[in-house]
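Researcher: Sequence recovery benchmark, item below. Answer with residues only.
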């Protein structure tokens, strides 16, 4: 039997969008201030205990507030259940938040949370330790995923910018056996990419070195996509049509880009074992699928790419995807908090993310993810270059 909502329980409102921490803005019927307070109390209690929350617990929280009788609280909790914000796992149990309830909590209830001193100190210590190290880019990203995992007690994921988008600082080609070539590309700021490619014709080491010198002298500061496009344009000119150097350059650039334009760069995942400690993951088969997702780079990058629109998401924004909002079945018991970071002004972009159960510290971790994305961005921005 459905309960009648107390008068004024629903109102027409817009979700908070200043932080862009949710799905695209939309209008919706949402609970009034009293129901919001009770929903927040249920979620905060459930975040701490992991247990269903009964009306008695909520009544104790509001014992000193005028007009908050146990009967009123029970009625409002029942209306929250009818609206799909909470549910009862068992008839005699209290309520637990649903994905819809968490979404409302993120969109309308939580506000900007100051970063805790302990979190600031841990993040700044990471950056100070990594700054100036040889190969600091990969070290920073790997340690960032480890710190995200440690701070969240969940899974930390960091994706580096793709090789296709990175701006060339220096490139080398090393001849291997069987027409294979090792491509070593250094992009700003001192990020090293290694990739083995295979070409159709045999190229000598001398030709590879000549091609690398040409690319380094003529195209430094440009992405491989831009370099390839400019060389193709040059080759349309008759004088360059039969230039072996340019043909080698376009072959090597194109082959290096194979498979790179649809995916991002390296993926650093830490803390998958934390999932095993979470009582929220009771479905063993769903957990196995989740672990397989973490292990498959292309699949994981695709999920993250679906959360952050490549062209439309502004630097500094945070996205939160909850439960069944995920297209991937393996992620539908999870929440994902993710933010992009940019490398310099060239448009190359990576992502920083935390994945955990829907019962996760949204306010704190939104702030942590956003702060770490901005700090990594600063580390990757050459001195004197703006965003």
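Model:
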């Amino acid at each position: 039997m459905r309960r009648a909502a107390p008068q004024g329980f629903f109102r027409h409102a817009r979700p908070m969008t200043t932080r862009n921490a949710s799905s695209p803005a939309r209008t919706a019927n949402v609970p009034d201030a009293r129901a919001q307070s009770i929903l927040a109390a249920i979620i905060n209690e459930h975040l701490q205990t992991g247990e269903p929350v009964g009306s008695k617990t909520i009544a104790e929280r509001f014992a000193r507030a005028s007009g908050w009788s146990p009967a009123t609280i029970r009625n409002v909790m029942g209306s929250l259940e009818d609206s799909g914000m909470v549910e009862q796992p068992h008839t005699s149990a209290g309520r637990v938040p649903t994905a819809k309830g968490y979404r409302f909590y993120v969109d309308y209830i939580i506000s900007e949370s100051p970063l805790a001193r302990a979190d600031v100190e841990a993040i700044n210590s990471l950056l100070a330790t990594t700054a100036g190290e040889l190969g600091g880019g990969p070290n920073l990203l790997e340690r960032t995923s480890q710190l995200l995992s440690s701070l969240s007690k969940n899974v930390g994921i960091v994706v580096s910018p793709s090789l296709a988008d990175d701006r060339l600082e220096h490139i080398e080609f090393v001849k291997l056996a069987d027409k294979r070539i090792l491509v070593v590309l250094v992009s700003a700021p001192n990020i090293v990419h290694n990739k083995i490619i295979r070409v159709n014709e045999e190229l000598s080491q001398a030709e590879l070195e000549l091609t690398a010198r040409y690319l380094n002298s003529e195209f430094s500061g440009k992405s491989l996509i831009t370099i390839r496009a400019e060389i193709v344009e040059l080759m349309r000119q008759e004088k360059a049509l039969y230039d072996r150097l340019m043909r080698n350059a376009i072959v090597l650039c194109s082959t290096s880009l194979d498979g790179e334009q649809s995916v991002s760069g390296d993926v650093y995942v830490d803390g998958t074992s934390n999932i095993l400690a979470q009582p929220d993951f009771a479905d063993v088969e769903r957990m196995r699928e989740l672990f397989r997702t973490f292990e498959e780079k292309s699949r994981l990058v695709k999920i993250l790419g679906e959360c952050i629109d490549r062209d439309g998401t502004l630097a500094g924004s945070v996205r939160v995807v909850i439960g069944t909002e995920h297209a991937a079945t393996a992620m539908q018991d999870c929440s994902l908090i993710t933010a992009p970071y940019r490398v310099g002004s060239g448009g190359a972009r990576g992502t920083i993310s935390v994945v955990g159960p829907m019962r996760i510290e949204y306010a704190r971790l939104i702030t942590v993810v956003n702060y770490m994305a901005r700090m990594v961005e600063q580390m990757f921005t050459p001195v004197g270059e703006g965003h």
